[in-house]
Design brief:
heterodimer, A: about 350 residues, alpha/beta, TIM Barrel, 7-stranded parallel beta sheet, 11 helices, globular, B: about 350 residues, 8-stranded parallel beta sheet, 3-stranded mixed beta sheet, 11 strands
Chain lengths: ~350, ~350
């Protein structure tokens, strides 16, 4: 168990429900403007200016997360434009040909793998270093997983997406080794593509085996999967070599909760307790009820509190309000647990599980 | 991945006295030019309520007219034999003909097959009748070109993509969708060819009874037009029983997606025969790797060689799927590859 290292020294309660975020946070408008200026050839706003803007935004959001009282923070992914593009720009073998449709007039610059993929410059180590410098609380690193990187790219080189995913898994492993060396102790692998093609869960498992190779035991590894039918990957996903599963359940009003009761949840659960598609902060009382749903699945020492997904599409004040209420709700549930006021329904897990 | 070159290095058995006409075409649903992606997003917005409802104002209509012109120019420049309108307006992809219909309520965003693409769930809430929306697009295209090819969703796929809250049971709904598409087809101006795109016949294959109804619905649509009707399933091959039912329909050509599953497709053609004409999906509509014309030629020759018992009058050479998945530069290069193929004489 790697959880205790994230318990703050001044934590008031005996129980500790680790609070964190999935990753992204709304970017300040001025950061979008800075990008526009940087991309505008007629303007003299250069790379150095743009870096400074990203540093400022990263500092701001890390501090905002800290101020909400989160136990583990992220910088809101201020430096990342998109969850595949960002990485593809840093991996040798990728090229970009232009935007493609996702739906309606929403597009994504889907990259093409045109040569064998190779590790080149670092992806997230400097982001981690910077965030650690500006905040006093532990930092989590979300990283897009190899299956999603493969699935959401055009593949011109490898036999199929599976082969590409395994090659990319080696690169993710290399990056994670670098992150661990830099001091990272909490890494979340994002695999949203798994939700769209659940039949590929064995490929994701094989990718994860390659990723965790040589990662020390004190590093907390999580997997984030969202907006899918979990019954098609559960309980098989419990065999993955990760400690925590970060799941989106609030958006569906916990209608998939039963999936996780049919078979014992033998790992840690990072439960989505606020909905990132509702444009107002849920009240503390409502979030407390959501947290208690998590206690039907796992005991408190295995429960992490988190939003459903990245917050980036919300207005900033709403995103902040949700995090603030989420932390308060977690602390109140901890107090009630300390006082013995909450009955824990989760099945106990023996050492044999 | 598609057919590798290794698998198709077979000698070509040419029939001395039979020439097959190769017709280079596409199933439409093109990617918007990049300028139009921006311009239309600004004019319309990018939320689900902002998408095409068939009642767009003059400014938006003008943007789409320019898009249409560009699509036609690109196909003419590539020397394609059939010209599609390009379906730039089809925000909801194959569900478009319902999405613009008065008897339909477009609701939540739902996944488009196994892709990272989404469309608005068209919920049929009243009796369907044709809107003439697709006919209007083709009439506009007709002012610019001849050799037009119409594109419609096949009746089974359109029913599969929609939600029925009016007709009550699958059989009535399938029949109603067939009638509806037949009425839309009847409104079309004179076109050379009508492609009916039927990916659901593969992706969500009809069970017993539904397969026969799907075939009857195809018949209903085909009977409404004088154009050559091509039924084009993709993302795999038809199950044998479904294949047999589709062969019962009165159609001119059947499509084979040789990119996603060439073996099962060629097996179907060997085992059950084909209509006089076939459409061969030989260019990958979902990958940026651009095939050269020689590769395309080899793919056609491989198919004809494997199915020598069939004597094709005409082969439509096409991308296997719609092409909106592609970035514009690669899309245009693929049109050119198909067009270049046409200049090569192929003996089958």
């Amino acid at each position: 168990m790697t959880r205790e290292q994230f318990r703050p020294e001044n934590h008031d309660n005996d129980h500790f429900l680790l609070t964190t975020v999935v990753g992204s946070y709304p970017k300040p408008k001025w950061l979008h403007r800075a990008r526009d200026l940087f991309e505008d050839e007629d303007h003299d706003f250069d790379a150095e200016n743009f870096e400074e803007a990203k540093d400022d935004a990263s500092r701001l959001i890390s501090k905002k997360h800290e101020r909400c009282g989160l136990d583990v923070v992220v910088d809101g992914e201020m430096r990342r434009n998109e969850m595949v593009e960002y990485f593809a720009h840093r991996i040798d073998g990728y090229e970009f040909n232009g935007p493609v449709k996702v739906w309606g007039h929403n597009y994504f610059d889907k990259p093409s793998v045109v040569e064998e993929v190779e590790y080149d410059e670092e992806w997230l180590i400097s982001e981690y270093d910077f965030t650690t410098d500006v905040t006093d609380v532990p930092v989590k690193v979300p990283i897009t997983g190899p299956y999603t990187l493969a699935k959401w790219s055009f593949n011109e080189v490898y036999e199929d997406h599976e082969e590409l995913a395994y090659e990319l898994a080696e690169l993710v492993n290399e990056e994670i080794e670098g992150l661990v060396e830099a001091g990272a102790r909490y890494i979340q692998i994002d695999e949203p593509a798994l939700a769209t093609t659940p039949d590929d869960h064995a490929i994701v498992g094989e990718c994860l085996e390659r990723i965790v190779d040589d990662v020390p035991d004190d590093v907390r590894l999580g997997l984030h999967v969202c907006y899918g039918d979990y019954s098609r990957i559960y309980p098989e996903m419990l065999d993955y070599p990760v400690e925590e599963y970060d799941l989106e359940l609030c958006n569906g009003d916990y209608d998939q909760l039963g999936v996780f009761k049919a078979d014992k949840f033998t790992k840690d659960l990072a439960l989505g307790v606020v909905d990132v598609h509702v444009r107002e902060p849920e009240p503390v009382e409502e979030i407390k009820e959501n947290i208690k749903k998590g206690l039907e699945i796992v005991p408190p020492e295995r429960l992490t509190i988190s939003p459903d997904c990245g917050l980036k599409l919300l207005p900033r004040d709403v995103a902040y309000g949700k995090m603030e209420n989420m932390v308060q709700a977690a602390r109140e549930v901890e107090e009630e647990l300390d006082a013995g006021e909450i009955e824990i329904d989760a099945p106990t897990i023996s050492a044999d599980d | 991945m598609g057919i590798s070159e290794k698998k198709i290095l077979k000698p070509i058995m040419a029939y001395e006295d039979s020439m097959t006409e190769i017709v280079a075409t596409t199933p439409g649903l093109y990617p918007l030019p990049d300028w139009a992606k921006e311009q239309l997003k600004n004019q319309k917005g990018n939320q689900k309520v902002d998408l095409i409802g068939g009642d767009e104002g003059e400014e938006i209509q003008q943007s789409y007219a320019e898009v249409r012109e560009e699509f036609i120019n690109a196909q003419q420049a590539a020397s394609l034999d059939r010209i599609v309108e390009g379906q730039g307006r089809w925000d909801d992809m194959l569900a478009h003909p319902l999405a613009v219909n008065d008897a339909v309520d477009t609701q939540g965003i739902v996944r488009y097959y196994d892709n990272n693409n989404f469309y608005r769930d068209p919920v049929v809430t009243g009796e369907l009748s044709a809107s003439g929306d697709v006919a209007d697009e083709l009439e506009a295209a007709q002012e610019q070109t001849d050799g037009l090819q119409a594109v419609l969703p096949g009746p089974y796929s359109l029913a599969d993509l929609a939600t029925d809250e009016y007709y009550g049971d699958d059989a009535s709904f399938q029949a109603a969708i067939g009638e509806f598409l037949a009425e839309e087809a009847d409104h079309l101006p004179d076109v050379e060819t009508l492609f009916l795109l039927e990916p659901s016949l593969v992706e969500n294959a009809p069970e017993d009874g539904a397969d026969e109804r799907a075939s009857e619905a195809i018949d209903t649509v085909a009977a409404a037009t004088d154009a050559d009707v091509v039924v084009h399933p993709y993302w795999g091959a038809l199950e044998e029983k479904v294949y047999a039912h589709v062969m019962d329909a009165d159609i001119d050509a059947l499509g084979f997606d040789l990119i996603s599953d060439h073996e099962q497709n060629v097996y179907n053609a060997q085992e059950y025969g084909t209509p006089d004409d076939v459409a061969l999906g030989i260019v990958d509509g979902q990958n940026t790797l651009v095939e050269d014309p020689e590769t395309l030629e080899e793919r056609i020759e491989w198919f004809t060689d494997q199915t020598q018992q069939n004597d094709y009058e005409r082969i439509y050479a096409t991308t296997n799927t719609e092409t909106f998945y592609l970035p514009v530069n690669r899309f245009e290069e693929k049109l050119e590859a198909l067009g270049a193929l046409n200049k090569t004489e192929v003996t089958a």
